[in-house]
Specification:
Elements lengths: L1 H15 L7 E6 L2 H16 L4 E6 L4 H9 L5 E3 L7
Parallel strand pairs: 1-2, 1-3
Length: 85
Amino acid sequence: MEEFFEKIKQAVQVFSDLKKEKPVRIISHHDADGITAASILVKAFKRKEIKFSLSIVKQVDEDLIKQLNLESYDIVFFTKGEFRP
């Protein structure tokens, strides 16, 4: 459980360090919990006036990773640790 809280602290620090002038990328799953998680992130980013780009996807696959590598975002948020078809 201690490791979980340490990861939460790290995530809070990353979020706190975000800058308004540096947009972030959000990738979320297309099911109800993915859309809900994405909406929570969107609301948080809007409150901090952080620019973002959101994609709702069926799965994270090789094509998506290749596309993300072509983009210029420093930070990409995935709303789920595991995607399945």
